[in-house]
Amino acid sequence: MNTLVATKDASPKKYGNYIDPTKFIPLPENPDVKIARVTERSQYRRCRRQWNYAFREELQPRELDADARTLGTAVHAALAAFYTSMMGYPYDVEDPKDACLRVWADYVDTLDPEQFDLGTNILHGYFPFAEVEDKDFVPEMVEQTLYAPASPGVYLQGTMDLIVRRKSDSTLWILDHKTYRTFLTPEQIEFDDQLIAYIWLARQNGIPVRGAYFNQLRKKVPTKPLLLKNGTLSKNKNIDSDKATYLAEIRLRGFDPKDYADILEVLPDSVFYKREPVIRTNRQLDSFQENLFHETSEMHDPRTPIYPSKTRECIYCDFKQLCRVQEDKGDVENMKQFLYVRTAESPNRRES
Ligand code: SF4
């Protein structure tokens, strides 16, 4: 392990001056109180059977692939260290990048080498992007779990990746890190239901956030330009790359950047990282609260029927084998024992 070490005498600073943790809503100790997580609501809507396996029965595959979601979890942990170390946490690092990369290094055995290399490139590419995009931001809170009553006996739970203050106007914003192969389209953002949940949750807890940003990091390494037979680099303008990658290749091969000024001019600064602000009106927040009431009441009502919702997306489901056996009226319990573990017992526990 390569864990960050806290220095002895500095006192930890967990919140910025614009966050008042005394306003946070405590989760009642009553064991009858139920939790609905922000992240499980979309799964409930997508397929109740999948949600039932994952959240009610808390199952996850015994052999957790080093798949895309595991990479996402690891990148989130590394970014949390990056921003936490900027907040005056007493870590033994000078540079937030070091904090980030040391946490990242802990995942070397969890991820397969290809995924680890991809994540390393994503993080190294993120640093210069953040240097520019974070200029107006001050981290105020990192990876904080909040609760708020959603329906009788049910609390909504959500963990914010990051809350920042914009120096220019002192407004607070949620930053939600997302690792995708391609960026979200404006329509996908319009219909996204997760950020509005975080905005609602933050405001319920006395954090007057103005809105939220999707902090998108593409799960793809920039394409390097091809070396053509005539000994020069391809100037294909449709290349999925950026200025920095192209320039690095020019320098690596000892070419003169002046000979590539035309392509460098048209290549974007970054097509791998993007921030998209999301603002929701008070009316939209009211509608969200009404929908949340119905949804969470339903999720925790034992009379709610559980059934599969089969689509082509089922091929990506962690429970497809179990689901097949259940459809065949086979020995589901036996399969659970051999192929799945309870989430809390899993050595690769995937946080939700
Ligand atoms: S395989 Fe499809 S129908 Fe079955 S649990 Fe998974 S998502 Fe639901």
Describe, in plain words, how this protein is organized in 3D.
This protein is α/β, with parallel strands linked by helices and 352 residues long. It folds into two domains: 21-220 and 272-302 and 309-345, Lambda Exonuclease, Chain A (Alpha-Beta Complex); 222-271, no CATH class. Helix content is 38%, strand content 18%. The strands form two sheets. Strands 1, 3, 4, 5, 6 and 7 form a six-stranded mixed beta sheet that branches. Strands 2-8 form a two-stranded antiparallel sheet. A hairpin with a 5-residue loop joins strand 4 (154-166) and strand 5. Helix 1 (38-46) packs antiparallel against helix 2 (48-56) and helix 4 runs antiparallel to helix 5. The chain starts with 33 loop residues before the first strand and ends in a 10-residue tail after the last strand. Residues 47, 49-50, 308-310, 314, 317, 319-320, 323 line the site of iron/sulfur cluster (SF4).
